[in-house]
Amino acid sequence: MPHLIWPMRLNPLLHTLMAASICTAVHANTPPAALHTLNNTVYPSIDHHLGERLYPNEAIKAEEIADIIAASIRKQYSSGLALRDAHPKAHGCVRAEFKINETLPKNLAQGVFVPGQTYHAWIRFSNGSRDATQADIKSDARGMAIKLLGVPGKKLLPDEASTQDFIMINHPVFFVNDPDRYISFMQDINGGGVLKKLHIPFALGIKGTWIAFNSRSKISNLLQTRYWSMVPYQLGAGPDRLAVKYSARACSALTAPMPHAPHSNFLREAMRSDLQKADSCMEFLVQPRTSNAMSIEDSMSEWKESQAPFYKVATIRIPQQFFDTPDQNKFCENLSFSPWHARLEHQPLGAINRMRKVIYDRISQVRHEMNSTSRLEPH
Known about the structure:
Layout: H1 2-5, H2 58-76, E1 89-100, E2 118-127, E3 142-149, E4 163-169, H3 179-191, H4 194-198, H5 200-214, E5 227-228, E6 233-235, E7 242-250, H6 266-277, E8 280-288, E9 311-318, H7 326-334, H8 351-370
Antiparallel strand pairs: 1-2, 1-9, 2-3, 3-4, 5-7, 6-7, 7-8, 8-9
Helix pairs in contact: 2-3, 2-8, 3-5
């Protein structure tokens, strides 16, 4: 039962998916001008224009979730290398080029999406399960985290001055919306005991449990899989700013067959083999919201492509390379990804993203502290 739900515990996002399957939380109409968490992190302000609404005591609850996850990491990795709380199993970090289309509509040519611009990038591919030893053949959520380098402009977080992160998994929606369900879920996951695990479906609700179950799948190749941001982001900084979601997919529709009796780490092996032979190509897509009915705060509902099409804005070229070396794997583990490593034009939107600012930063601090390493910005 635990691993039925766990993969979505992303970091984020953490993971980041919760829901109103049965009841909807009441939103506060007006947030304080500058909310601070207990660790003095400035909590994000909300964008009324794009439809954000603050949940009651949201900043405090984000801190509580961060406390639960931090305690879990300290317990799980009391000896040895401390890994991420979610997506701890990396298949590898690869060098890439992120080339913006030569021409773009004005409403999409915002922030890093400067027509003709090319950025160097690092991309980390991962499994979602908290068990870093789990075999790749098992159903799981898969992550793709992109870090663009050499990005000019003011950033939303001070720890990285010239990066822009895009964080995605291979499922279009998250399994929770509101802080209360998320806290309950995290308490059940980390509480120990059969009764806590049996309570997980009640914590998530019917819709959240269904999403968590269906977010787990088997894939044959990381470079041929489609990924989604799940949650929305701002695009632009003026009165005409948009709410958008992101996605990445292979340039080719070819799909490798599922291997018979594969090794435990066959996804890493397949990516290593592919990139030793040739370049790989992916498309980066933006999905502008087309109706206010597509709620910023509802991370559990997909924006249907039939109503809100995706537009290709960039091509990701992963050049032929050998990435699987001890030094590069260590470098990969030391990287920190956050949706808040972003320019102002790409501010994360919605409760899940707002909580991520607190949670991701805390977890990164704990992990690096336990490993006696400094958080360094890659160049």
